Amino acid sequence: MAENASNPVIAAADLKKVFRDFWRRPKVRAVDGISFEVSRGEVFGLLGPNGSGKSTTIKMLLGLLFPTSGRLRVLGESPRHVKTRSRVGYLPEHSYIYPHLTSEETLDFYGRLFDLSRRERRRRMEQLLEMIGLQHARHRMVGEFSKGMARRIGLAQALINDPDVVVLDEPTSGLDPIGCRQVKDLILTLARRGKTVLMSSHLLADVEDVCDRIAILYNGKIQAMGPVRELLEEKGRRRITLPELSPEAMARVLELLRKEFGEEPELEHPRRDLEKFFLDVVEKARRGPQASPPKKEKLAGYLEGEDLLQKLAAPSTTETKREEPPPSAPPPAARTDARLSHLLQNGPDNE
Amino acid sequence: MLSIAAVTLRTAVRSRIVVFMMLLLVFILTGLPSAIRGDGTLTGYVQVLLSYTLGFAGFILSVVAVWTGCTAVSSEIRTHQMDLVVTKPVPAVQIWFGKWLGILALSLALLLFTFAAAYGGLRWAMIHRSASEEDIQKLREQVLVAREKIAPRDEGLEEQAENLYRLRQAEGAVPEGVAPSTARRIIADDLRLQANSVPPGYGRRWIFDFGSFVKDRPLFLRYTFTASRAEIEGLWTAGESGSRDQAVRRVTEASGGVRTWRIPSAAARDGSLTIEFGNIHEEPATVIFPPENPPVLLLYHDSFEMNFLRVFCIAFIRIAVLAAIGLTAGTLFSEPVALFFSAWMVLLLNIGRYIRAMAATDVFFPVHDGPARIPGLLDRLLHLFFAALDGLVRPLQSPDVLGAMAAGEWVSWGLVAAEFLVKVLIFCGLLAALSSFVLNRREVGLPA
Q1: What pLDDT sits at residue B432?
Q2: Are B383 and B362 in contact (CB under 8 A)?
Q3: In whole angstroms, what is the distance from residue B420 CA to residue B194 CA?
Q4: Per-residue pLDDT tens for A265-316?
Q5: Residue B335 backbone zone (phi > 0: left; psi -120 to 50: alpha; other: beta)
Q6: Phi/psi at B227 (nearest 5 deg)?
Q7: Is B79 on the interface with A (CB under 8 A)?
Q8: Tens-digit pLDDT profile for residues B136-154
Q9: Are A112 and B446 in contact (CB < 8 Å)?
Q10: Exposure of B201 by Cβ count < 10 A (0-12 exposed, 13-18 middle, 19+ buried)?
């Protein structure tokens, strides 16, 4: 299948993988007839408990394992095709980086494998080190790194070739909340730039934050697949978030709801997302009087589309999924108050 | 490819086993020459340095090459470091060659160090070790040279043996059931033994053919013999009979051991030299020159340093082959299996002589009460097995170049070129192709 803008970037059809023992007897059916497609610019998540077939699927996508049967295409070609590999970036579950190389040498080595020129390697290396916040450790051996640092350098190597398809196996594993947020922001940015991201994770919140679509695997089969919002939506139930009301207003609202639905509505204070809370606290601490000015890790320029990626970031083909909120829309609190006044005055029937 | 080579080199240098081997190498280079007692002469010391020390050092380097070769791929597959390499747009053949070049770079550095240390030790010994004039002359003329080895002219014994076999066969003298090859070999061996046996009062002549030679350098005849007496009296002559330049030497020599006769160059003419031995022992004692090890004539060819360089090249080629074997085993098998397989391959290469002898054997389990030496089914199977093994191992065998260098024998550029062609270009090329084929079809991401 030739590569075409309308064709899926990743296409798996009835994919099966059976691990055999020394005597070629089937031992484990790791992947059992899964089919899915991932389009350009999409973030696709593979979820599932341990042993569900996520990593096996990812390894088949990379040509590290061969399907027992089924059809698998990446960028219209076999994953084992050398040309395909030049457009794929891969972050494995564990950072299988040579421990005796420094950060710089690591990125330089993987850059060389993509046949990048010395100048281009140098440029991307600088930008990636800045992006992952490891400029200070550029001359340190990777073997001396903490798990989080090793993860970051692993992520950098996955992006050294400015890939069209990024395969991330547990990308936030071992990272602190700030690192997690940065990785998630990076994934979203990559997707905005037209990159296709396929990731697996045990951290469901991470998947929910960044994935457009997910597939939940169990026993090597896809048990559920679809857009995250659709899968998580509870049909037939609605949640209204209100500002703090006076006791009288609250009583009236509850009365109205009881009348309408005939049952007691659930009432609770909304909770903030722990990650967001943590990041706010850290940010405040940074901005304290003794702290140095806030330093925002910058996305590597070439990944942001300062050159080649600019072409890929054409709005007509790549930015169809995530729309920024219209600038003219009123702030959420103002909208809530206006809607509430309207509801109290006219009742739900007039809505 | 070069980046893979550089990473392989760095990985190897950081391997504890390789570091241990390097330390062992330094110990051997510094300790062995003084630990091994030669014959007490400077010549003996230098020969020990050139053969034993370089031999041991070469063994250590071989182990390093095989080990690093085995682990370069298999260990990276086991630790999944290879996952990040094979998912990049690098053809498998480049991965193999990159790894191989990395190991070769390490081996080259170690081999350079080894040979430089050995040469330095040799020069140091020549300056600082006390030696007689005779010893120094012997060293310069017989060790620190590259002498071409000339075998005696073929006397057509094979043809005579064939004729004799046909005659015996026609006479019905060949026992029924004896394989023709066995009968031929027995007859040929018998003829060779007769030709090289010198009864009392008889002589033996050899003609050595060679082209032009360096006239201001002496020639050397190297020979060995056995006799039924402890010592034998003999008369050696070299050159044209009756000529004033004919070299004559009357000796009383012990049986066994290797002897050398220094022949003035004037005795020889361009083209050939005739050498005769006369058994003039008073008491009856037959002298036998072993047919498999006949006398040879040694002619100066070029300098020791050039020989040293050529031996270095051959040693490097051998290490390159071992590295390729290890690397291929590491690509085909898991780490322990690869090491086991490589160890077997190295062993086979080192016992090539015995394999050849077994391949030449027709009867392994002779039936004593029946017709002599008639091969059975098992004999035939064993013969086939060893012949196949010999066919596999023989192209990879090399002459003992360290021993030749220590004996002042010329190691030719032709041999270097042949070794390079057969072992590096053909054999390593085949291994590279096989490894690439396997690596392309191997599931690198299988769980460990």
Answers
A1: 94
A2: yes
A3: 40
A4: 888 777 777 777 777 777 777 776 555 544 555 666 776 665 443 433 333 3
A5: alpha
A6: -155, 165
A7: yes
A8: 888 888 889 899 999 998 8
A9: no
A10: exposed
ipTM comes to 0.73
Chain A touched by B258 (CB under 8 Å): no
Cα distance from B1 to chain A (closest Cα, Å)?
8
Q: Does the CA dihedral A127-A131-A132-A135 come out positive or negative? A: positive
Please tell me what DSSP assigns to residue B396. Answer: G
Q: Give me the residue label for tokens 């139930």.
A: A237
Task: Look at residue B32 and give its three-state secondary structure.
Answer: helix
CB B50 within 8 A of CB B402: yes
Q: Which residues of A touch B11 (CB under 8 A)?
A: 98, 100
Contact B213, B237 (CB under 8 A): no
Residue B184, both tokens: 């031929």
- Asked if the C-beta of B443 comes within 8 angstroms of chain A's C-beta atoms, the answer is yes
Q: Using CA atoms, how far apart are residues A192 and A195, in angstroms rounded to an integer?
A: 7
3-state helix/strand/coil string of chain A: CCCCCCCCCEEEEEEEEEEECCCCCEEEEEEEEEEEEECCCCEEEEECCCCCCHHHHHHHHCCCCCCCEEEEEECCECCCCHHHHCCEEEECCCCCCCCCCEHHHHHHHHHHHCCCCHHHHHHHHHHHHHHCCCHHHCCCEHHHCCHHHHHHHHHHHHHCCCCCEEEEECCCCCCCHHHHHHHHHHHHHHHHCCCEEEEECCCHHHHHHHCCEEEEEECCEEEEEEEHHHHHCCCCCCCCCCCCCCHHHHHHHHHHHHHHHCCCCCCCCCCCCHHHHHHHHHHHHHCCCCCCCCCCCCCCHHHHCCCHHHHHCCHHHHCCCCCCCCCCCCCHHHHHHHHHHHHHHHCHHHC
Provide, as residue numbers in chain A, all residues whose Cβ is less than 8 Å from the Cβ of B92.
Answer: none
Phi/psi of residue A211, nearest 5 degrees: -85, 140
- Residue B247: which H helix or E strand, with range? strand B247-254
Domains assigned to chain B: 2-147+303-441 (no CATH), 157-300 (2.60.120)
Q: Is B87 on the interface with A (CB under 8 A)?
A: yes
